[in-house]
């Protein structure tokens, strides 16, 4: 970890190494004490990420927000001059939304935006409500402890995003196994997960060429085959980003939101009494427990300064969204949930060109899940405080969330 020391002549603070932060099980379980230490020590720190790569970690809200929109922090790996290794991506995932910059990113983004128009997302609301009700009905029929991750947080986004893409129900079983590898901290497992997902998507694309429908994969095929606006690899990459982005972040938001409410019965009771607060509650939960803790790495295209710390061209930079959401310089009492907070801004969906295109859909799924969960199971309690988080530097995700449902409302 580093802290800033005043520089002599040029007035630019110099990064000074102190204790190296450790991203271990304790961090995965509760990253916020480490973020507090890092923000106090300085705005940017040279650290070793869990995959062994050296990166600059930026922790303060103002710097993170500015960095998300700064075009000098590019996604394309051609700017990588600092030896960052990361995940070895398959050829078909070398040029995707997450690793491109304008103008190429702008072209791809315009196509994916068409899949997430406000009208199209709003048309999914009845389907989201239907799936939530069905999943809660199945939970109600069980006895004893229920795992909210397996019973609700995982199957809801899988169902909705696969519906959107047009993936048949009998093809959805292996999907979570692929993503488990992709978002973990083991580079070999991540690489294998990416390869498996690419093979899966190519098979789905081949299927939709013979059996077209009105879903999104068929739309991508039309853009590729008729308008020639997508290469074959770009089409695979687009489907990949929609699947990963629409699944893991929403799973995390639902499970982390449910856990936060279980641990704060006063806030849960407030939402039951005033359900109109749910949209504000979703925003506050996104700030409080950001599903993406650390944004995908960027590379400095030139020598620059972040928060007074000089960053060399070619260095890998990671913007810590989780830390930004708990910055006391931005939020009063950031470690406490407040559904009537004056400042509801956050960067949990990103900011700037890479703002999450599926943000509206994610908000809808989280709101529907938590609203019905609170109404139907007012006596629900946490079954075990010893919770386990899946190792991950980018996503923060509960492996399981065991709860005792208690008596259902009205029964």
TrEMBL record:
InterPro entries: Cyt_P450, Cyt_P450_B, Cyt_P450_CS, Cyt_P450_sf. SUPFAM superfamilies: Cytochrome P450. CDD domains: CYP107-like. The keyword Nucleotidyltransferase does not apply. Keywords: Heme, Iron, Metal-binding, Monooxygenase, Oxidoreductase. It holds the Pfam family p450. Belongs to the cytochrome P450 family. This is Cytochrome P450. It comes from Streptomyces bohaiensis.
